[in-house]
Amino acid sequence: MPFIRILPLLLLYISTGCKETNPEENEYIIGFSQCTAGDTWRKSMQEGMEREVSFYPNLTLIHRNAHENSKLQIQQIRELVNAGVNLLIISPNEAIPITPIVEELYNKGIPVVILDRQTTSKKYTAYVGSNNLEIGRAAGHYINTLLKGNGKVLEILGTSGASPTRDRHAGFVESIAQSPGIQLIDKFHGDWEQEYVLKQLPAMLAKHPDIDLIYAHNDRMALGAYKVCKQAGLEQKIKFIGVDGLAGPNGGIDLVEKGIINATMLYPTGGEEAIRTALRILRKQPFSKENILETMVINPANVHSLKVQSDKILSQQQDITRQQIRLQEQSNLYHNQRIVLYILVFLLIGAIILATIVFISLRENRAINAKLEAQNQEILSQRNQILDMAERLRESTEAKLRFFTNFSHELRTPLTLILGPIEDILTNKNVSPGNQRKDLELVRKNAQQLLHLVNLLMDFRKIEVGKMPLRVAQYDIVWFVQEIMNVFKNIARQRRITYRLTSSAPGIAVWFDANLLDKVFYNLLANAFKYTTDGGQILLHVSLDDSNESVLITVEDDGQGISQEEQQHIFEWFYQGNTSVGGTGIGLALSHELVQMHHGNLSVRSEVGNGCTFTVRLPLTQPDKTADSLPVEPSWTPSAFSPPTFDQAPLFEYTTSMPSLPPPNAEATVLVIEDNADLRAFLVSKLQPHFQVLEAADGNTGVTMAFENLPDIVVCDVVIPGQSGIQVVNQLKNDWRTSHIPAVMLTARNTPEQIIEGVQSGADLYIMKPFNPIYLIESMKTLLRSRERIRDHFRRELSLDTATLAPQRTDRKFVDDLTAVIEQNIANSELTVDGIAQAIGLSRMQLYRKSKALLGCGVMDYLQNIRLTKARQLLLRQNTTIAEVAYEVGFSSSTYFATAFKQKYNISPSEFKNLHTPSQN
PROSITE patterns per the record (predicted)? Predict the structure, then answer.
């Protein structure tokens, strides 16, 4: 394709033609530092510079106004230099302060043009301005002529310290010195502004009433002097001379023509000349260092012709400005049109190139598309086959996991029947310590190992499906690790292993799920004991990291260590290294996942032959993602958890026994609902020494027995014939007769959804199979003690002003309904338990048992308690007798009322009434 080969050359030629270059002209930036831009003369100077700059497109003018502040002007000069200007034009505010900075720039080789006011040094590139000394002389000569050699003159000076002020005064004094008749009787500084003249001149006129002429250093001050004299009626007597001679309204020329002032000294602004001089310097062309502008006297004799000329010049300047604007517009239009033309050319070339490429591509693609179509069909067929194989593999894997999960559930019940009796036998002191006990301990150890494998498989399944719940609470991590370490103390002592914990702080509060994190540390410690030889050491250390944002827990042993290659795979599922001793390859991977769920990290550091160190890093802040729907355990103790999870169960004593406390009521009745006859018989045998036990083999029978007997506590399996355990508990909790009865659920179903369902049904305790019978018994006793505390709550004094709340919604409704029936019939002395039971909708026996279980007292006791509480309020009313109160609250006689009242409150009704009745004066 020859055309494509020459395309880069064509584009280079076009892009080169797009640039406008003029080798004879460079881009220049001129900085202009003005002492002030507030007066007309200064504005005229800047306008002249801008007009001159407009003739040079390659020239840029940057202007700064110092507002007559020398320090600010020095700062602005440095800013202009830092901005990269090529040349500086400076009109000093004061000569002495500005001289050092001018000399500094001049010595650095930066061109500096001084405009109007000179500095005290000659270290500058060029000067443009009038000779103020000559202006002063010309003013003196003209005044001598105007006054005919005889008169008194008042001089109004400019700013003190300014070179124009100094030179104009010196030239004026030098000139009038040649005329003895001209006297300079006084002078003052007007600072170039009219307002200062208006303030100071009246005092001068009063001091010198015989003034013949006022000489002002600029036209503005001369105009101010004229205004003061006119107000005093002296404008015809006194003559006025100014300096500047600007064109335009209220300029010096205009004032002379109007007869306001007698003459003005022409003082050119020099703006145009400064720009021209700057350009000659930048272009390396010849220039004069001292550029003195000519001056002249403007008086009535020549003012008219000068005004005509100045007006014509202004008009021409305006025409030039308009032409420049128009020229700039045309130039912009031309530039834009040229850009559009270049764009169109590029687009045309691009279109031709694209068309050529498309044509060639289409021709080549036709042949390729045929091949691709055949390949696509083959790939599509293979993809469908792969998808079918992947779907079958997924279904097969899911079926395997589902089988093992269901199989694990089925293992929990027989494990319960194995571990329960074994634990019971081993806790019996009558068992001989010989071979029989060793055999039983061996059975228990292997049953626990089997249970550990079941739990491990369940945890693996939960993580695989992403349903492992995280329920965090704040614990002391030092205490938590210490409690887990205590489980291994016996084996450490037996094997003479140095085993200790160190911490950088006595306690560190961390947010974590104790049910999950204890598996991590049990596994790490079990592995440490597995690979540590007798007489070795296992050290744990707890500390904060350098940022105090995380806690570090290290488990260090001096075992055989792990190779670098194995360390890369040690946290992978089912990985077993060459040095591993048995195990499933799940423990460390599970620990790693559990730590990551806490937004932490588990890492390992080891060398072969030098031991191994595992580090758990946990954040101090609460993890964001938690299972909010699951209840958080309020506290944690090692005895409340299942055996530890690690690859090989260590040989240590592990028991979930709790301190034995006497039951709250030796006569308490427990209803056991369990369909497995062996497990039901086992539960009955364990519970009978502590409770009266009722049995039911299905849910329907259990509900009926609960309604008939109102037991003190119910123990129910989840999966039972008839109604399920969830339905049984839900029905009992929503019925008035049984809502107060604590419910304990036994189950092998431990997924988060199943646990939530059990809690939502109203179960007070949810125990996983297999379980320790002692833990079950002590948990039941704890629930009964809690129920006893609720009864104590209802046995407190009842006040009709304060609502008494029960812990369950149905219990609260029962108490509210019972109280309402009593209050509606409180005056009825013949109100009986039968009448109350009929009003509530319960039998007499059910009402008695419900009241006794929930309130800790009989119905009649509760009735009398409400009557006496009501009576105490009625006795506070004035003009009410004790007998009236007794009959109003349902007592048949005032004597019985007084006896019951004193028995309850240790004070008679009359004494109570007198105590709360205001004394009469």
Answer: HIS_KIN, HTH_ARAC_FAMILY_1, HTH_ARAC_FAMILY_2, PROKAR_LIPOPROTEIN, RESPONSE_REGULATORY
Q: Sort strands 59-65 and 126-130 into parallel, antiparallel or unpaired.
A: unpaired
Ordered by start, the domain boundaries in the chain are 134-262, 341-457, 469-640, 669-794, 809-915
Q: Is the pLDDT assigned to residue 657 strictly greater than 50?
A: no
Per-residue pLDDT reduced to its tens digit, 662-720: 344 446 889 999 988 878 888 888 898 889 999 999 999 999 998 888 888 999 988 88
Stated as kind and residue range, the H or E segment containing 511 is strand 509-512
The whole model's pTM is what?
Answer: 0.37
pLDDT above 50 for 639: no
Q: What is the pLDDT of residues 585-611, one digit of tens each?
A: 677 888 888 888 888 999 999 888 888
pLDDT of 255 above 60: yes
Tokens of 268: 């050119």
One-letter amino acid at 288 equals: S
Q: Which CATH architecture group holds 469-640?
A: 2-Layer Sandwich (3.30)
The H or E element containing residue 696 is: strand 692-696
CA distance 209 to 880: 112
More confident residue, 450 or 121: 121
Q: What's the CATH code, domain 809-915?
A: 1.10.10.60
If one counts every other C-beta atom within 10 angstroms of the C-beta of residue 115, the result is 28
- Taken in order 819, 821, 822, 825, the sign of the CA dihedral is positive
- Give the CB-side neighbour count of residue 87, counting CA atoms within 13 A: 25
At position 380, the amino acid (one-letter code) is: L
Whole-angstrom distance, CA of residue 200 vs CA of residue 194: 10
Show Cβ contacts of residue 783 under 8 Å, excluding neighbours closer than 6 positions: 713, 742, 744, 764, 765
CA dihedral of 680, 686, 687, 693, whole degrees rounded to 10: 40
pLDDT averaged over every residue in the chain: 80
- pLDDT value at residue 630: 45
Number of residues that this document lists for the chain: 921
Q: How many CA atoms lie less than 13 Å away from 551 in the CB half-sphere?
A: 23
* Tokens 């279980």, located at residue: 853
Nearest to 297 by CA among 237, 260, 244: 244
Q: What mean pLDDT do residues 624-634 have?
A: 47
Class of domain 134-262: alpha beta
Confidence of residue 457 (pLDDT cuts 50, 70, 90): low
H helix or E strand, kind and range, residue 189: strand 182-189
Q: Is the pLDDT of residue 216 over 70?
A: yes
Which contacts qualify for 554-557: CB closer than 8 Å, 24 or more apart? 554/613, 554/614, 554/615, 554/616, 555/521, 555/524, 555/525, 555/528, 555/613, 555/614, 555/616, 556/611, 556/612, 556/613, 556/614, 557/528, 557/531, 557/532, 557/611, 557/612, 557/613
- As a whole number of angstroms, the distance between CA 558 and CA 498 comes to 10
The fold for domain 669-794 equals Rossmann fold (3.40.50)
Of residues 239 and 424, the one with the higher pLDDT is 239
Specify which residues 827 forms β-bridges with.
Answer: none
Least Cα distance to 755 among 766, 770, 746 occurs for 766
Same fold flag, 134-262 and 669-794: yes
